[in-house]
Write a structure and sequence with these properties.
Strand content: 25-35%
Structural class: alpha/beta
Number of helices: 7
CATH superfamily: Ribonuclease Z/Hydroxyacylglutathione hydrolase-like
Number of strands: 14
Helix content: 10-25%
Distance between the termini: 32 Å
Amino acid sequence: MKISTFPLGALQTNCFVVEKNEQAVIIDPGGDASILVNYFAKRNVEVQAILLTHAHFDHIGAVDEVSEYFKAPIYVHKHEVDWLRLPEKNGSGVFPGIPEIRIKREAIMIDGEQELTIGEFTFELYETPGHSPGSVSYYLPEENTIISGDVLFRGGVGRTDLFGGDHDTLMDSIHDKMLQLPDETIVKNGHGPDTTIGEEKETNPFINGFGW
């Protein structure tokens, strides 16, 4: 399995492309759809789905264009389906210089924690709310990797001052879901470099202050 990272859009949000046996899923295409189109133009790979960790503007900016181009379904948690069409919730109508984003294509609702199988891929899907109410994380145990959006960063945690955010809920998600994974688990997050669960237990001041 191959996992590639593409920082996209105005905030250089990490988009991840997961590939296996000439199939792929795209996670959080936040902008610059042409970069993804050009990447796949050079590869004999079929895109199976667009997966969203959550529906903030910087994670969904290229969803319509990418989904339409690859004829791939969109998956988002049920708590944030309406965010795709509502700038006041996805944040695109809040920040200066960020145009409103209203996703036109229909999405498939994620409802509850589950094994999510799409083509060649099976993700263990965890609900990890707090940064937003419908934040989810996609765990690939055979790759020792979790793709977690804006839940846990190297040396930090997700902000909770946007619509629907809640700091206590976020810390519960980190404590009850993320920190229960093996220490060697690689955390591929929405902004900045990868980290590991073990590294964050040792060095992250938000986690150390939370009793670890």
